[in-house]
Amino acid sequence: MILDRARIAPILDLLRRVGEEELLPRFRAQVPNRVAEKTSAFDVVSEADEAAERVITAELAARFPGALLVGEESSGNDPQEIAKLGEAELAFLVDPIDGTKNFTSALPLFGTMIAGVSRGEIVFAAIHDPICAETSLALRGEGAWLARAGGSETALQVAAPSPPERMHVVAGTNFLPPHLRPVVQENLPKFAMNFWLRCAAHEYRLAAAGHCDLLVYNKLMPWDHAAGWLLHREAGGYSAHFDGSAYRPTHTTGGLICAPDRESWIAARDCLFPGMD
User: Fold this and answer.
1) The pTM is what?
2) Under CATH, which architecture does the 5-155 domain have?
3) Burial 164-174 (b: 16+ CB within 10 A, else e)
4) CATH hierarchy code of domain 164-272
5) What confidence tens digit (pLDDT) does each residue in 78-117 have?
């Protein structure tokens, strides 16, 4: 196996150190944190993002010579860099702060995500919560678990399947295309509850631990979803694009629905998008 528990242990230590040294001091305003807009007032980047990504990519490069490193801030959404994920023997996707708008708003709902990819297959996932000092981890074929700062671990398991009327759903409808947004908004009342945390890192952690039932996403940049997709899958979940096709980290369109199993995925998709084949 290209990555195993021994090889990912230093990555866990790295995430904890970056959280403590680069993120929390800036989050708590102990050191300055310049903020700039990227594409909108919601899509922002801060000095904390840039500093954390520099540290993470530098250490990954030193520990895994020759690995392809694709960071949210350094890649500039370059399609050519994303395409390389399909061929690289080993690649790492880095999202230094998922939920930057929360981070810069002093809201403690943000996380750091790293995904390991081998020839287009996601093989490793880590989602770190610096506030709670907890990391959700997964290795392909070996399950998913929560690692705490004291060394204890808890296996992660998605919620038991349930009908749509009992599902709690994460759905950020603002990212849906104009022709789908009103359809989804009209059909969300068919579910028990819907909400959005503005942070995929925490939304995937909730679903992988069984605390919500369904995730619905449209915008699929790989650093935002590769780690969460594997975490959810290894916790027993099922996911696919809106049309039922399989997700890959090179896919940036097609939407994504994550559910406890295939049957509940079908039921939820049919509620959200009636008549979709």
Assistant:
1) 0.95
2) 2-Layer Sandwich (3.30)
3) beebbbbbbbe
4) 3.40.190.80
5) 889 999 999 999 999 999 999 999 999 999 999 999 999 9
